[in-house]
Every structure is written in C-alpha cells, then in structure tokens.
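To the wet lab folks,

You asked to see what we're planning to order before we commit. Fair enough. Below is the target structure as tokens, and below that is the sequence we designed to fit it. If anything looks off to you, flag it before the synthesis order goes out.
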C-alpha cells in the first residue's frame, strides 16, 4: 500500500557532490503537513541538505516523531521582544517577523560543520521539483544573497499589474537564500530589529510584513543575485507569464527545468479555484499549474493530515488590530478580542530542555529577580505585607495584589525577606494566589474548555471551586475524608474521594485538575493511573505540585508503610488543608523529573510542563510550573 505522504515520482535527485546547504521553513502547527511535503520534496532534490522547521506556535498537540523533521520551538530563537510580538502580531506577521532570527540561528548552528554554508528559506506551501542548482552556483560564485522577483516582465494587463508589486515588494520572500558572512549577519540583525514592530500589513504606508523590507537588500549588500529563472517560485501572481510542461520527472517551465512551485493561498476545499488571492486562474486555464495543485491538494488533505491541519493556532490569528488581510477566515481564535490577557508560557518535556531554557535566558532571569526585588519595601515599611498592581486573568482586570512575608525562606543581601511569591501573592478581588491564578489562566488560554465540559477537580471547599462551579455546570469537586464516609459519598455536603482509588466510571471526564494535592498522596503513581482511567481519550490532566526542577529523583519526605504507619525520612512538613485547618496535610514528597516517568508509566505518552513568569500578571518567583498530560485518542 502506498504511503499517503510518499514522495511524488516527478522528483529527480541531484547528482554528484552537493553544495553544503541548510534549508528551513516557518509554520504554525496546522501547516506541519505542508512542511512535511516540503521536506520530502527537498530530500529528493538535495539528499544531503539539512532541513529545520521553526514552529511559530506552541510545541504541543502533536507527535513530532512520525513527521520525520527537526522541529525547533519558537523560544529557541532567543528573541528578546517575543512576548510583545506575540501579543501584537497576527499569524502572518509573526511567522514572517521571526525569519531573520531563524537565519541567524542557522548561521550559528552551522559553525561546527561548515563556517560558510548557504542557508535557504522556503515557505512551507512550496514543493521542490529539482535541485536548486542556480542558487547554489550563484552563492558559490560569491553572491551574498539570492532573490526571486515576483515577475520577470512588465505586467501591464495581468491580474496583478506592476503597481501591485510596488506595494507588496519586488521580490517574493517565500524564498530567499543567504551566504553566511559577517556582512549578511549584520543585515539580518538590522532586519530583525525592524521586524519587532514593523512586520505589519500596512499598504498605505508601503509596508508588507517582512517582504517589502527586502527591496532594500541590493542597497545594503554588494553581491545580491536576482534570479530570473522562470522555473523558480511559480505562483498565482506570475501564471500569466509561465507555462509548465514536460513529462513526469523532467517538468519544465518556459523551456527551463522546473525548480519549485509556490502554492500560495491554496484552497483545500475548492476543486477548481487555485488560490484565494486570484479570481482569474483556475485548474482549467493555469498552463500546467492546475494539475500540480490538484496532486498537492490530494496529499495535503489525506486522512493522516486532517488532525494536524485542524490544530488551533495558539496565538492570535488576527493580532491586536483584529484583522488579517492576508489570511482571513473563520479559524479565528476566541482570544483575539482580549490579547492583553495572553500569558507566554514556555514548555519543557525533559529536565535537559528546561535547564537549557534557564541557561539561555540567564540574563532575562536576572532581570526578573531585579524586578521582583524592586517591588519589596525596605526597612520597617511593609514588614507586615505590601501591595502592587497587576492584571488578574481570573477577575478580568487590574487589581491590587496582596503580598506577605509568610513562610519566607530566604533574604535579599540587605536582610529583607524574599516573599514566598508562589503562595502569597493573592488578588485582593478574587483572593486566589499566584499559582492558582496562573493555573486557571493557562487552563482557559491553552485548552479553551467549553461551558459544558466535564471537569473533575480534586478540591471542593475552596474559593477556586466556587469560581469554577459558577462557570462550568458539569464541574465535579471533592475532598479526602478518609474512612469517615465511603468513597463517592458525602460528608457535610462535600464529596469524598481518594485520588488513589476514585469512584468514577472510566472515561468520565474531559479534564482533571489538581493543584498542590498530589504531594499529599502516599502513592502518586496510583493517582496517575486513576487519572488516566477516568479521562476520556484526548482528555487532559493538569496539575501543580511543589517540585525541584533541577533534579530527576523526587525528595521523599515521608512514606506510608504497609502496616499503615507513617515513616518520616525528613522532619514532618504540613501544608494547609481545608478539611483540617488546624492539623493540615502531611507532605509526602517534593517531586523531581521522575514525575514524568510516573506519568508515562500510567499511559500518558508525552507529558510536559509549562514554566512561566510575568510582571503584568504578578506571576513571580523561580520555578513556577504547571504539568500537563494528555490521554491518547
């Protein structure tokens, strides 16, 4: 049986020793099927070339292994203004704004292998048909950059006339090839600085995302090669001057080898129209382009790609301005109307990845600690607590955050206590502390639960339960009363549940929420197994726990012996307990990264954690983390 994404037979591989080339593309999660088709076509044309996908989205919701591509997260680029860019840009603007940073990273990545490789960017909706020989030859001959113009001849009577390209740019930035030199790197840094705020669609001002800026490239670099080969970058805007012909495996355009086709604006649901941007060209009158679109569309819409194409965009499709002239559609994210509430949370799947983030962001983390310290009053002022203003994503507005020094475990160099930021920064309006507000923030932002979602939370006598119950009528909560009542029974109107042995039927819930409870469970591996059982396929477990994120083994403070005795390995530590305010709840452990091993053993294949910090929302302190595990569908 032929694999649904197998490379097409029309590709022909490059012969002889290939030039050192590094390719990359940029896309959101729903464009990963396109990126995979691009990757497969590239590997046929350039078998030895390096290829990377930079994901302008959240690194979650898919299994990267079957895709067979190197996928780098957005955070790997180290963009200082990334959070601001995410909040302001729409999907088209953000995906193009990060391009210079990708080039700089590709230049840096190549230093160990070849100090001067050629780096080529291609849009994900491109298919390569034969080796990009002319590009490699131009760069080998000394060109610092290679660009492809939108059109090769005056377009006075075409659907897209000359003045169109005066507004959108002379060169199409679905392709650009650069040589790794100090001069080019300096221009990339300039381009990156401009795109922090000016990668916008504002045609009256003469700006079209990253593309229009490259009209200046020939002025900034001596050797810019404008590639006027008709076999490059064939798309809806130049079909009036291109003719594709020839047999499979040797396709040509205007008598020259066909190098790559750009399926910009492809309409997957339409069988005749080729692009949402063109009303003139259709399958029947596109001079050989239409059959390629049909073949590409069939592969892109194969059943194995449907789930990926339906993954929602994690950021803002229409951006802060509420519009996206280049990529309009009903895919709009409900969060568009309130992008000011977006929390940029990093993801980490392994301890190495987490520690790598901390190392790469060392200067930023130092600035965070300085920001926190500046809020803390010195001397006797504020010794009993202090306030600062922040946005509460639970209440939906700015409020005073009440902060105390209760359970402060360290001091600043001048002797001032460091607040326990995780537990004791509470919103004066809703009363919820830092970690709880952040957990709800990410729950609503990342998973968008419906009002009728079936949710179980391992608490009931709390403010959080009261807040959730007013918004989700199918919410179920519980506390643990031991043997005072049977499991699933009520004690003074509150449900009794043992997380290690839940009373619910299998596949009862879409979401299971638990916040700082699992450290009080003697056998958390049993609790994870129960969570897996009661979640429906595709259901998610989200929880917080005290954790040491710089080590793998958990710190076992206490254990439950087979005879029921409590064995203390460290001095007993008790946390607040709404069921027993005076006695509290014994802490059995502080978790390490072996927590992920427990989740995988319970059946969750790819658990991860969010780690976050935000001055705007008052989410302070080191090591803020929220764990997530999804049951396979």
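Sequence we intend to order:
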């Amino acid at each position: 049986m032929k694999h649904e994404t197998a490379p097409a037979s029309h590709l022909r591989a490059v012969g002889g020793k290939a030039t050192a080339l590094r390719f990359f593309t940029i896309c959101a999660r729903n464009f990963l099927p396109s990126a995979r088709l691009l990757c497969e076509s590239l590997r046929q044309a350039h078998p030895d070339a390096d290829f990377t996908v930079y994901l302008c989205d959240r690194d979650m919701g898919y299994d990267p292994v079957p895709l067979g591509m190197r996928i780098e997260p957005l955070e790997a680029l180290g963009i200082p203004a990334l959070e601001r860019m995410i909040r302001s840009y729409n999907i088209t603007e953000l995906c193009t704004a990060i391009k210079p940073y990708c080039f700089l990273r590709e230049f840096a990545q190549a230093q160990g292998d070849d100090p001067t490789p050629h780096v080529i960017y291609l849009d994900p909706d491109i298919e390569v048909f034969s080796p990009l020989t002319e590009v490699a030859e131009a760069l080998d001959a000394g060109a610092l950059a290679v660009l492809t113009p939108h059109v090769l001849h005056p377009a006075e009577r075409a659907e897209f006339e000359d003045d169109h390209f005066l507004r959108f740019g002379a060169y199409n930035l679905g392709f650009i090839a650069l040589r790794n030199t100090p001069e080019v790197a300096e221009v990339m840094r300039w381009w990156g600085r401009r795109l922090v705020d000016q990668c916008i669609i504002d045609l009256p001002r003469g700006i079209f995302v990253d593309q229009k800026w490259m009209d200046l490239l020939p002025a900034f670099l001596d050797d810019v090669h404008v590639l006027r080969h008709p076999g490059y970058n064939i798309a809806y805007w130049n079909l009036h001057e291109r003719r594709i012909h020839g047999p499979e495996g040797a396709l040509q355009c205007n008598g020259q080898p066909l190098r790559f086709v750009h399926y910009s604006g492809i309409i997957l649901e339409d069988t005749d129209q080729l692009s949402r941007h063109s009303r003139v060209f259709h399958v029947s009158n596109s001079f050989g382009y239409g059959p390629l679109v049909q073949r590409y569309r069939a592969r892109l819409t194969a059943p194995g790609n449907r789930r990926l194409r339906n993954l929602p965009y994690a950021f803002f499709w229409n951006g802060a301005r509420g519009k996206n002239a280049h990529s309009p559609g009903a895919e709009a994210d409900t969060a568009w109307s309130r992008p000011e509430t977006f929390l940029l949370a990093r993801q980490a799947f392994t301890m190495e990845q987490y520690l790598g983030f901390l190392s790469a962001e060392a200067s930023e983390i130092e600035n965070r600690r300085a920001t926190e310290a500046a809020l803390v009053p010195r001397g006797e002022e504020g010794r009993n607590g202090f306030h600062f203003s922040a946005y509460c994503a639970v209440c939906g507005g700015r409020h005073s955050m009440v902060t105390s020094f209760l359970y402060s475990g360290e001091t600043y160099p001048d002797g001032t206590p460091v607040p326990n930021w995780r537990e004791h920064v509470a919103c004066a309006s809703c009363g919820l502390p830092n970690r709880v507000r952040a957990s709800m923030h990410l729950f609503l932002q990342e998973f968008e639960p419906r009002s009728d979602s079936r949710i179980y939370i391992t608490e009931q006598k709390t403010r959080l339960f009261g807040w959730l119950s007013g918004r989700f009528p199918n919410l179920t909560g519980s506390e643990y009363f031991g043997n005072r009542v049977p499991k699933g029974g009520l004690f003074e109107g509150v449900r009794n549940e043992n997380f290690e042995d839940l009373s619910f039927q299998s596949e009862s819930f879409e979401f299971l929420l638990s916040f700082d409870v699992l450290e009080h469970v003697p056998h958390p591996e049993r609790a994870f197994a129960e969570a897996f059982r009661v979640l429906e396929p595709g259901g998610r477990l989200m929880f917080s726990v005290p954790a040491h994120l710089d080590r793998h083994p958990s710190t076992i403070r206490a254990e439950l012996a087979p005879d029921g005795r409590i064995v203390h390995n460290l001095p007993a530590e008790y946390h607040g307990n709404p069921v027993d305010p005076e006695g509290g709840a014994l802490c059995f452990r502080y978790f390490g990264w072996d927590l992920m091993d427990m989740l995988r053993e319970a059946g969750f294949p790819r658990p991860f954690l969010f780690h976050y910090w935000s001055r705007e929302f008052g989410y302070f302190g080191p090591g803020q983390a929220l764990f997530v595990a999804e049951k396979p569908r």
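Structural context that might help your review: The chain has 16 helices and 32 strands. Residues 32 and 308 are 7 Å apart (CA to CA).

Thanks,
Computational group
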